[in-house]
Amino acid sequence: MPKKTRKQQLSAYGPFPGFLGLEPEHSSRTRSRVLVLPVPYECTTSYGQGTRFGPRAIVDASSALELYDPDSGTEPALELGFHTLPPVLPDMDSPREMVDGLAATATPLYQSGKFVLALGGEHTISAGLVRAAVRQWPDLCILHVDAHADLRAEYQGTAFSHACAARRALDELNREKGRMQMVQVGVRNLAREEHEFIKANPERIRTFWGEEIAADRGRHWLGDIEELVKDRNVYLSFDVDGLDPSIMPATGTPEPGGLDWYDAVELVERVAKAANLVAADLVELAPQYGNRAPDFIAAKLGYVIATKAVRA
Ligand SMILES: [Mn+2]
To answer: What pTM value is reported for the model?
Structure first.
């Protein structure tokens, strides 16, 4: 079969509407301070499928969000502007090439000084995005919200599996003695080798376990994270399975005992204030037909992340 043209490939994902369904005056590329980058990539999923439909479901749901923010009494979307870029075409030949290509795509976006919110797709995409972000912010650290540690050296024959996402992203970071590289939040399922890796690298990784967060009635974990990221350049990688499956069942590998909505919002808010939240990805939504709530939750979370990051 002849290879499809770029235009034909793109049409399989489009026409892609804009995030939040904004009018052109609030969504032109030049004026907007937020760039939304859909990355409908799915190649290495190991259990539930469908994350390639995630970006489209998030963008579709976003058009029904209320733009008004009662805390500030404003409509942040209209003030900041959100521009949605064409989706990044999946490279199904190899995850490594996908990651390389994505790094090349993202580099000028980060250089533009705008806040880039990438919408996955599977978690594999984070490595490419982080590689590009490190070029712009060499001291970058990662805030990784996830049910899984994603720290395997490799999985099912590839080092670029979604199950290795955090390990690959960590590889991209610059190391400096005594400087924390990754703060994980909500982890509650991992393999022995990942646990060993965390225990062997306390200077590089701090993991806030799901159980630890649930048991912390005074919510001291939020203050601890603030301390860890204070004045740092932070990349947020948010796997939606970090949320509890009671609100976020639409993901390939759900785990009980996750964050609730207000945990997630407060985490984003406090990190955005304490640190410089430079870019983010929101990954692993696998939409379920007949249940739209997860799509809306992901869309609202994306809106909250971009708004808090740019306004802080
Ligand atoms: Mn996960």
So the answer is: 0.95
